[in-house]
Fold each of these.
Amino acid sequence: MRADLSVRIGRLTLSNPVLTASGCFGYGLEAAAAFDVSRLGAIVLKTLTAKPRHGNPPPRIAETPAGMLNAIGLENPGIEAFLTEILPKSRKLGAPLVASVAGKDLADYAALTGALQVPGISAIELNLSCPNLNAGGIDFGGDPAFVREATRRCRKASPRRDLWVKLTPHVADIRVTARAAWEAGAAAVTIANTYVGMSIDWKRGVPRTGHGTGGLSGPAIRPLTLALVAKLAPECPIPIVASGGICSAEDAMEYACAGASAFQVGTASFRDPTACLGILESLPGCLKQAGLARWRDGIGRLKRPTRAKETL
Ligand SMILES: Cc1cc2nc3c(=O)[nH]c(=O)nc-3n(C[C@H](O)[C@H](O)[C@H](O)COP(=O)(O)O)c2cc1C
């Protein structure tokens, strides 16, 4: 029997829970040469800003134990070039597209969201959590009042397309910012963006990224983000989309246990551009090992030790 991998995220029913993480798959066009990307549950596109951005000075990437630091700084062609030059091509890929936006203030977020009310865009992820900007990014996303207001304004600007709110892990309690998002109308929360980290070339006495710090991603962060998902899930009324160090179907199953409805593959795609496909093909075997016929039956199966109730 074929495993049923379908999952509902707000108004969208995805054929499977395997999504790409923003910034790790471009606009889907390069990977399409490597595999049939229409098999993905959805492609989450590189974050867009109102104006084109060149990003941060190099080096923008540094390898770390079990992970990487990136300080790209939201390099992107800007919303106009995306709509006219890129979207017509990405639309032909056949997978649902989730656009990602980062504004410089509340009005900018709403304007970007409004501009994306176009055929071919299935949902919009609000990137309230980029660690590589001098202003905005995680400074915005750590403030529940900003999360609430940004979500509320974008909700108004997006009557027919769901909002997914991507949160920063740099908060005392992820439940507070997530609550701000769902109370303001988010259809899902993406947990989480990268963690601020640093690596130093001690011989020269300089940071290994041009920006000074970078966002830590990859397997190194998986236990941290997994704990955030497990903490949030029991009281979160909207689906959680996990993002943090997922490299295998087994990793994805852990996140499902913790309460994630779908998941995004980020850093793993840099090592192997077909990583998503490998994970998708291995999921049915994992479901079988767990005695499950459907992906959605595996969501939130975590048995919580009674003593851990306070911390999880
Ligand atoms: C090189 C690189 C660029 C990224 N760019 C973005 C971005 O533009 N927007 C965004 O929301 N997240 C961005 N991220 C964060 C990823 O989407 C993802 O949330 C994070 O890397 C954790 O997942 P992972 O450990 O699977 O990579 C970027 C990550 C990397 C490594």
Note: The chain has a mean pLDDT of 95.
Amino acid sequence: MSEDLLIVGGGAIGCAIAWEMAGEGWKVRLLDRQKPGAEASWAAAGMLSPSAEAPHLPPLVPLARAALDLYPGFVEQLESIAGIHTDFERQGSLVVFFGGRANHTQGEFLAALARAGLDGEPLTGEEARRREPSLNPEVAAAVWFAEEASVDPRALGRALRAAAERRGVAIEAGAEVFRALIERGRCRGVATAAGEISAARVVIAAGCYSAAIEGVARYAPTRPVRGQMAALDGGAARPRTMIRSERGYLVPRPDGRVFAGSTLENAGFDKSVTAGGLRKILNGAAEIAPSLENAVILETWAGLRPDSPDHLPILGPTEIENLSIATGHYRDGILLAPITARLARAWLLGQPPEVSLDPFSPFRFASPAP
Ligand SMILES: Cc1cc2nc3c(=O)[nH]c(=O)nc-3n(C[C@H](O)[C@H](O)[C@H](O)COP(=O)(O)OP(=O)(O)OC[C@H]3O[C@@H](n4cnc5c(N)ncnc54)[C@H](O)[C@@H]3O)c2cc1C
């Protein structure tokens, strides 16, 4: 029997959409070419920080703010259905500045944020250290974001999959989709190694691999951007808030670990952890919080962010009837998962979206269909 909705990709984005639409009573099938949730969504740091990309990507701000507003309700519902704790915590975040030009850079950062429609609280170095004693004494200025939060991305993935399955979503591992089946301007399903699968609607949420699916690249010309990470045993003097500097960031976890990140590298689909990448992360971490110089390294890993040519997500229907796209979330897919699910529900049900989809249209890269 044909599904109402077939989703390609079982990361945070695909699973959030599956869960949302199963909640509408739709029959949903999700295909992943490997174990779902083992790609970017597994590798993320879990920061839920609208301020992080705001200065460079102002169109993202309405989406990011709406996502952060949705998060407490989103995780509460997921946790109660799945019985899995996601470690959502609103611990706030600090952006810190070093050196003689710190006040100037702080001012420029606040001005860029204001242009993007966000504000933060300016702090002196001293005020920042009162809030976060682990900070380097050389931090000369900072900006505080009280609302920002974090989540454990791996636990979130487990919770999303379990909650989706409880709502009846059929999740299949080891099912690689090669092609969207397009005939006379309509998508009727997908082609896999095991044969064709029909569905009334298809959503492509295959992260940085979306462009490799035949028929999809013209709407979703995704590319991978590698990010390396390290988990440190933070010790008693570990940071309690999230902290970002020009050279890295720290995300403290409730269990005492501190995630240190990250690199932004064009390394193709290679997920290696490299000496140079780790050196950069660890130097950045110790510059922010010098006590981490002695921290034990617990784990290192790398993942591939799904980037798009303008670094904005690609969301919405294409001109191929019944084929839509939800990818390109780049550095913010964990934050944006709940709002992406809500927007997908709107376009799939033909309702108005709660945030304008115009900046994220899958048409913006495409030449007209042949
Ligand atoms: C190091 C790092 C740190 C990050 N930190 C943060 C952060 O702090 N906050 C934040 O919000 N975001 C962060 N991100 C970004 C975030 O991880 C991504 O934007 C998000 O996970 C993208 O989710 P996704 O579901 O689109 O993609 P993915 O999680 O990559 O999932 C795509 C899925 O599609 C499957 N797939 C691919 N091709 C096919 C196919 N042909 N057929 C079937 N299945 C297929 C894959 O197997 C995979 O399971 C970070 C990313 C990295 C790498």
Note: The chain has eight helices and 18 strands.
Amino acid sequence: MLEIKNVHAGYGKLKILRGINLSVPKGKIIALLGGNGTGKSTLLKTISGLLPLMEGSIEFDGQILDKKKPHEIVKAGLVQVTQSKESYPAMTVEENLMVGSYVRNDRHGVQQDLEKIYEFFPILKTRRKTLSGTLSGGEVQMLVIGRGLMANPKMLMLDEPSAALAPKVVLEIFSNIYKISQTGVTILIVEQNVRMALLLAEYGYIIRDGVIMLEGKSDNLIHDSSVRESFLGGTVADTSRELSA
Ligand SMILES: Nc1ncnc2c1ncn2[C@@H]1O[C@H](COP(=O)(O)OP(=O)(O)O)[C@@H](O)[C@H]1O
Ligand SMILES: [Mg+2]
């Protein structure tokens, strides 16, 4: 569904990504993993059309995205939930969700999707008239995922959905991501929480300094000695402490 070939990209003249190849098959959950500052968000921004391609090509659902504008990419069905977890704090939860549907003109479908999102995240329904500025970190993460779903995407790219959340909340979010994928939405998840992401995803890519260092089935990566040494050395509690630091 998403084919990334030899992608080079960065900021101005500063090249961060140096020849990324990555593929996300339809209906799957694929993980992009790596430490801080390795180029994960840069890759998502490049795919979403927020950063220009310096070299290489990106194909999504049979369309070449290389020169497309961000809103055209959303319209093609590829939606990014950014790392910043920005909501519109002075708007209600429901108004925030509706923002996600701005690219659509099928009112009936929008209403149906709103109900679907309230089924995934019942807390958002309870709080639908609440200003989003008063939500907890976990609730905001659910809100921004829900907002992404309101665009009716074929594929979602999630940038560090577990960041700064308590382990129990992370578990809830990840179980919802799984349910979302079961409805047919293809998912690329970016994470520093390697353990959790490999439990969720079928296949993973490990990025370092703008290059894919290693890729493979999640089962193989979990047992790989370099992955264990770099990412799985600590306990789950250590990992969550690092995340909230
Ligand atoms: N707006 C920017 N301008 C210049 N350099 C940036 C910008 N954003 C990120 N970078 C640099 O690009 C590199 C990769 O960043 P990023 O893709 O955000 O990493 P990750 O998401 O893996 O933590 C880092 O060295 C970072 O400092
Ligand atoms: Mg990032």
Note: The CA atoms of residues 118 and 126 lie 9 Å apart.
Amino acid sequence: MEDKEIEKLIELETRRQRDGLEMIPSENHTSPEVLKALGSRLTDKYSEGYPGKRYYGGCEFVDQVENLARDRAKALFGVDHANVQAYSGSPANMAVYYALCDPGDTVMGLALYFGGHMTHGLKLNFSGRLYNSVQYQTGKDGFLDYEAIAKLAKENKPKLLVVGATAYPRIYDWQKLREIADSVGTFLLADISHIAGLVVAGEHPSPAGIADVVTTTTHKTLRGPRGALILANGNPSNPLKAVERTKENIPTLIDRAIIPGLQGGPHNHQTAAIAVALHEASKPEFKEYGKQIVRNAKRLAERLLEKDYRLVTGGTDNHLLLVDLTNKGVIGKEAEAALEKAGITVNKNTVPFDPRPPFSPSGIRLGTPALTTRGLKEKEMDQVAEWIDAAIVNRGDDKKLASMREEIRKFTQAFPLPGESA
Ligand SMILES: Cc1ncc(COP(=O)(O)O)c(C=O)c1O
């Protein structure tokens, strides 16, 4: 690159990823094919509208790109309609609110401090400011409390019930949630951003055909570029006709919420990269990848439990572990900092009913999707658990942490990033 400053920073970030263990559950390592699409000429093209109905000329090829992305998303998740234009997960959720609710309507989502996402009704987020947000919590045991959700829904009669999380280690009972939504006549949004890759792999039940709308980011377990999908059943109709907020009209309502409601031109390079990632996710190897993510998370959970780490809900069904560090006499940010010095990237996180403030919570979140992409399996998880424990125990000893970092750097050489060789 001619821009040496940026070139250097890209190299340093690549090296940071290569030499360390990436354990943030919402991150992954994309394939060279995904990166190629992202860095293509498609980024130059304006194409406001949808395939065949654009406000710009020259869309012959980007139309085909978007159609491929939509068709692959529909086939992979088994739905009638896919919108692939949302710039990322937050705008995708915003589009669903915009499509199905009016400002001031009541919406219900899992509170951020119990594992929900900001866009699920946090007061400081658009979803809590523009809408009357009612937040549910997990039970004391960290599991979703379906009875409490049903009771809160009966009391508040929301227009939209949002289910999904950034820090929930267990499986969602979509059928139960459908019954709750139906009991009060509310739309059900399943935000599967974290678990989409596991759904594709058959490792988590799919909400498709149960929830009214499904949103997902494309860059977490799905291992694509940053971006999002909005999936629904029903028929997209003439976009110029006024449409009522019925289930059948959801595809049209979603498409219109994206443009002209919230966005302008789609990011065609991103759409192409999503199409590539969806193709990769349709292969049998991806199913095996999803299964290995869960096997690795379960093994890591076992090993940490043996070392007396407290896991919220007592374990995991998916790709992540939420660790309550209270009994270890360390807080989340200290553990995060020590692990980073040792070359393991995690993030501090609140735990249910956290007595500590949200900016300095009691726990950390650990995930296996990125490590699994690099080929780590159960055996390596045993070693990872040793390192995690050693970094936390030796958090005050920078020399020990630095020598662990070197040990980890050497270890990672046998597990190259996608497209690199060992
Ligand atoms: C459940 C959930 N929904 C939505 C989002 C938002 O995605 P983005 O960061 O791409 O806006 C996230 C991201 O962490 C998430 O975990």
Note: The CA atoms of residues 12 and 18 lie 10 Å apart.
